[in-house]
Design a protein that fits this description.
This protein is mainly beta and 271 residues long. It has one helix at 3-19; strands at residues 38-46, 51-58, 63-67, 72-76, 104-110, 115-120, 124-129, 139-144, 150-156, 161-166, 170-175, 182-187, 192-197, 204-208, 211-215, 222-226, 233-242, 245-252, 257-261.
Length: 271
């Protein structure tokens, strides 16, 4: 085959690939800064500076702040000299950018407290002050929070507390005022893949195996359970404006996306 014909056919195949994409969707920026898997993201709007900020955490044990409008790194979180040393040959002397002993698995931001919390495979939860200046992201406290890897962390506006899930199959609620103080423990019947919060009522939404489980954080009791997926649930989204009512949307390894009517105060009875 003539090389020019072959090249034209290759170009057409590439072009057809882009034609199959939704109009208007394109990659604005590629944010390159971590060395390995990025394990957690959260968004911060700085009203005073009118700045849209992304916080990213990674298995490389580093936390980076990004300017979303410019697509550039703002700074990297750095340990204070008073913090315990992290022994790592790859760390540049004087930079102190490794902020956990184990790989970071998730990160969350609290606007009310201007703090970030991140969890790690070292079984600890870390809380730091948030700043776009990496040297001002001071460690407030770290503590042993689960018997094994800590998988996810969320901020609970309703209770002003931190919420974590662990490899030990538990969900734990931690005081934000008295860090390290455990307020409640929820024992799940299956491994936890995903954790989020109902933004209307403060329910704890849990992907446990193939079930969507809903817990009341005040009583720690399961108030509703949805079954229907054939394999593990991988994500949960809380939609406010679907069919005029709030709904939960779940994704699963079974290839299906399913929609469930959200739980309200009047419907919060076990099913």
């Amino acid at each position: 085959m003539d090389i020019r014909v072959h090249s034209a056919m290759t170009d057409w195949q590439t072009y057809k690939h882009y034609l199959n994409r939704a109009s208007g969707f394109f990659c604005r920026f590629v944010l390159w800064g971590h060395d390995v898997c990025v394990s957690g993201l959260d968004y911060v709007y700085d009203a005073q500076a009118d700045q849209h900020i992304l916080i990213s955490a990674s298995w490389d044990r580093r936390i980076i702040t990004w300017d979303l409008m410019a697509g550039q790194i703002i700074d990297v979180c750095k340990r204070d000299k008073t913090e315990a040393k992290v022994f790592e040959e790859k760390e540049t002397p004087g930079e102190y950018e490794l902020v956990s002993e184990g790989q970071i698995t998730d990160i969350a931001f609290s606007a009310k407290r201007n703090e970030i919390a991140y969890c790690s495979r070292d079984a600890h939860l870390y809380v730091r002050k948030f700043s776009t200046n990496g040297r001002r992201m001071k460690l407030v406290r770290k503590w042993h929070s689960h018997n094994g890897e800590v998988l996810q962390v969320r901020w609970m506006d309703f209770r002003e507390a931190w919420l974590t899930s662990g490899q030990d199959g538990t969900i734990r609620i931690w005081s934000a005022e008295d860090l390290g103080t455990r307020l409640a423990v929820i024992e799940c019947t299956q491994p936890i893949q995903y954790l989020t919060i109902d933004r209307d009522y403060g329910w704890i939404l849990v992907a446990a195996g193939s079930e969507l489980q809903i817990y009341d954080p005040e009583t720690t009791q399961m108030i509703r359970k949805h079954t229907g997926h054939q394999q593990l649930i991988t994500g949960i989204f809380h939609s406010h404006h679907l069919y005029r009512d709030a709904h939960y949307i779940t994704t699963s390894y079974d290839g299906f996306i399913k929609t469930w009517k959200a739980c309200t105060r009047s419907s919060s009875l076990p099913s």
